[in-house]
Write a structure and sequence with these properties.
alpha/beta; six-stranded mixed sheet; D-Maltodextrin-Binding Protein, domain 2; 46% helix; three-stranded antiparallel sheet
């Protein structure tokens, strides 16, 4: 009996050791990140406010991550942010070195028209700030108010179907009766801005931070006029109407609530699904620390970049609520936008 027991114990020990050896060891975050590079894929161009915020964040985030890795920004504009989001979801490393910076309307794309990623599975690290938005026209535009835009055709620049530069003017045409003519295909916000300046288009949808961080001179010189605002209210624009106040039906307002997930999410950073939990926790902690970093805040202030951070957990709650929008409301919104039902 003793011999059998010893053999059994030895066999069990061997199986235990073998089982442990079969499982790859997961390095602690500090050991893992030491000497590595964390790449942030930006779903927009380098010249727009999204790129500005990424560079600002990347310059300070690394020193708060265990192991102090190098942090860089890489740019994948296109498809209203869906090109970058799809790359992060399907191609980026799932070890915690591949991070995404969202062009926030792209979180709506899977429900509106289908996309090669599931935004509900993104692991949110946090957002630097919400991004209240505006619909803007150049000062020489033939229409300078919403009422005038209902009577006069206005040419609006857009990056593509998935972008709010398309979604918002199209939504306003359907709900308010504006006559925006949307020209798609611009390779980011900066080319649209140039097209406004040259008269190729009359205006665009933009985030308020897109004007305050990149085109302060235009604001100061009153080169641009804000027709309407939406998302969180903008204190600097007390006389600009809020889109919600112009909508009549409850369905239209519910659609706007879904769209406004983008504005509340703002300058958000995320990981693809599958990243080890301890690395997620370390990156989230480093994000919070960066938002309180005096050097980061000083740099943001010097660039007039708003900092009003939102935690990853808060973003997850916002996203969950938006993704629970009833399908009939989403179907009606698809019809407004000219999107086909997702397969």
């Amino acid at each position: 009996m003793k011999i059998v027991s010893l053999i059994s114990l030895a066999s069990s020990a061997a199986l235990g050791v073998g089982g442990l050896m079969a499982q790859p060891a997961i390095a602690a975050p500090a050991d893992f990140y030491s000497g590595k590079t964390v790449s942030i894929t930006v779903s927009g161009g380098a010249g727009a406010s999204l790129g500005l915020y990424c560079r600002l964040f990347a310059a300070h985030w690394g020193k708060h991550i265990p192991g102090k890795p190098n942090v860089i920004c890489q740019f994948r504009p296109g498809g209203g942010g869906t090109k970058g989001a799809s790359w992060v979801y399907n191609k980026a490393k799932k070890d915690g070195t591949g991070v995404g910076q969202i062009l926030s309307p792209s979180v709506l794309a899977p429900m509106l028209r289908g996309a090669k990623y599931d935004a509900a599975k993104f692991i949110w690290l946090g957002s630097i700030t919400p991004r209240p938005a505006v619909v803007t026209v150049w000062h020489t535009s033939p229409a300078k108010t919403i009422e005038q835009a209902k009577k006069t055709s206005i040419i609006m620049g857009s990056t593509g179907f998935g972008s709010e530069t398309y979604i918002l003017p199209k939504f306003m045409n359907a709900t308010l009766g504006t006559k925006f003519k949307i020209i798609r295909g611009y390779k980011g916000g900066a080319p649209i801005n140039k097209a406004m300046e040259t008269g190729e288009v009359h205006g665009r949808m933009n985030y308020w931070t897109g004007w305050t961080t990149v085109k302060q001179k235009w604001l100061k010189e009153k080169k641009i006029i804000q027709l309407v605002q939406y998302g969180p209210k903008i204190p600097a624009l007390p006389n600009t109407p809020h889109l919600r106040d112009l909508l009549k039906s409850a369905d239209d307002k519910q659609m706007l609530t879904f769209i406004e997930l983008s504005e509340h999410l703002g300058m958000g950073f995320y990981l693809p699904p599958g990243v080890p939990k301890d690395r997620v926790a370390a990156l989230r902690k480093a994000f919070v620390a960066t938002m309180a970093d005096k050097d980061f805040l000083a740099s943001a202030k010097s660039k007039r970049a708003r900092v009003e951070p939102i935690s990853g957990a808060q973003i997850e709650k916002l996203a969950k609520a938006a993704f629970a929008t009833p399908e009939p409301i989403i179907a009606k919104l698809r019809a407004y936008l000219g999107f086909k039902k997702k397969k």
